Amino acid sequence: MNAEQLAVFFKQEFPQAEVLIEQAGGGFVRLRKPIDERHLRPGGTVSGPVMMEMADAALYAAILSELGPVALAVTTNLNINFLRKPSADKDIIADCRLIKLGKLLAIGEVTIYSVGNDEPVAHATGTYAIPPK
Questions:
Q1: Number of domains in the chain
Q2: How does pLDDT run across 39-74, given as a tens digit for each residue?
Q3: Which site in 42, 50, 64, 107 is 20 to 30 Å from 129, CA atoms measured?
């Protein structure tokens, strides 16, 4: 699936996600999440759950970009390291690259940035179970 097809799929299946799919292909995706006051925690930073949502959505999108619309692929593991404080007034970007795409499992890594800053704010790895055909 390309970025446009993924955007349609996410809008239909996960309208609550509110992520923009900027790039998809070759086992790589880039997602953007517009940040506003709903996404902040005390102290003026993007909340951990928002960054975890981005990591999970990016992994899912990367898998779908390679396999097509497999709605029942599910997260089996997600590990995240929060590296530095994201900007409260900037969107966040999640770049995901698949490490392994097998018949039953997919593994990927996600790096999350605040727009305009090259230093990552979080790094995640995750595994998805792919339903048998």
A1: 1
A2: 998 888 999 999 999 999 999 999 999 999 987 899
A3: 50
